[in-house]
Structure formats: structure tokens, C-alpha cells
Prior knowledge:
By secondary structure, the chain is mostly helical. The chain has helices at 6-25, 31-34, 41-56.
Amino acid sequence: MKDPSWSEIRHFVKFLDLQLKSCEESVFTDRNFIGDVMAGLKGFVVKFMICMSRVSDSNLPLATLR
């Protein structure tokens, strides 16, 4: 999106904030619950959300965003 409106930016930020809160509250990213079994899952999920937010805003293939 080349020139997003303030409304579009607000909705995107609200959506991303909701996703990050869900990630923080999930038992699957709680180290007390999962221990060392999936220790890097939270970092992976956050990086994946950031990567997907970039892809959703462009026509670039996923491999070009590394």
C-alpha cells in the first residue's frame, strides 16, 4: 500500500496488537507450561507475524524479505 489512510494504519496496528497480545497470553508460548520443549516458539511467532505483515502490504515473494 503506497499511501495508506490513517484509518487503515489504525486498523492494522490494532490487529497486530491483538495478535501480539494473543501470543503473549497463549499457553503454547508460556515457558512455565511448555518448558524447553518449544523454547523458541514465541520468537518464531513474533518474527513470522512481522514477516507476514510485510508480505500483506506488498507483492514481494516471501523469499525476498529475508
